[in-house]
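Design request, tokens follow.
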């Protein structure tokens, strides 16, 4: 009898866990990422996003600056990949937690950027890295620090 109870409890736990993972995936918008076909660190950022519950659609392009411009992100915030997530543009190696916060708070903004490719950002994992900032980019190109890492 005790084994049957344990089995049922495990089954209920698995059903609850799988249901909550499914709800999480349904509530997060798809990530359209525009990246070079040869960039390895972009692949690591994609893995970071997928592990955080995002569904990622990859668009391999040969001209990242053109994709960035098409999405409206100013060049001075450029990195190795640009993404569209819901109504926002996300430039570079932005942590998934920052994107989740952006989607929850819904500020009026163009999106987020982690300019360049700072060591320690997702996909650029290097131990004992210097701090970096995630910027909230407004439509007019002005910014403020959204998160410090």
């Amino acid at each position: 009898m005790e084994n049957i109870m344990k089995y049922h409890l495990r089954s209920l736990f698995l059903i609850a866990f799988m249901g909550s993972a499914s709800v999480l995936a349904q509530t997060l918008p798809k990530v359209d990422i525009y990246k070079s076909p040869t960039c390895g660190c972009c692949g690591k950022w994609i893995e970071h996003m997928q592990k955080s519950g995002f569904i990622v659609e990859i668009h391999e392009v040969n001209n990242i600056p053109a994709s960035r411009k098409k999405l409206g992100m100013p060049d001075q915030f450029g990195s190795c990949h640009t993404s569209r997530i819901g109504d926002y543009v996300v430039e570079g190696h932005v942590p998934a937690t920052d994107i989740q916060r952006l989607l929850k708070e819904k500020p009026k903004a163009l999106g987020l950027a982690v300019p360049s490719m700072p060591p320690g950002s997702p996909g650029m994992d290097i131990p004992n890295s210097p701090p970096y900032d995630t910027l909230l980019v407004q439509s007019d190109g002005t910014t403020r620090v959204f998160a410090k890492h």
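Comment from the thread starter after seeing the answer: thanks! Residues 2-27 form the longest helix (26 residues).
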